[in-house]
Amino acid sequence: xxxxxxxxxxxxxxxxxxxxxxxxxxxxxxxxxxxxxxxxxxxxxxxxxxxxxxxxxxxxxxxxxxxxxxxxxxxxxxxxxxxxxxxxxxxxxxxxxxxxxxxxxxxxxxxxxxxx
Length: 116
Description:
Layout: H1 7-19, H2 21-37, E1 42-46, E2 49-53, E3 57-63, E4 68-72, E5 93-97, H3 100-105, H4 108-114
Antiparallel strand pairs: 1-2, 2-3, 3-4, 4-5
Helix pairs in contact: 1-2, 2-4
């Protein structure tokens, strides 16, 4: 994955890389998926994470102590046949990513495609 065009996002990624290689690799892979599905995506730092937007925000990735949370602003509308999405809020749902293998196991591409 290339460097971010957003300086704040790039600084955030570099900080993560210094402290946790695995979380950095997960973040990069998730960003790669988002930009592959939606090449015109914008990213910025918000709520201490990376928010993705096109016409409006559609999701974000947030580093937690033991996982990366991929949050979807309209997750309550998503098709989720395997009940992978977590959260009980009015709109937002999230996936907890604990390893690179979770990216495939939790079918991130399937959810990203539904997020806009």
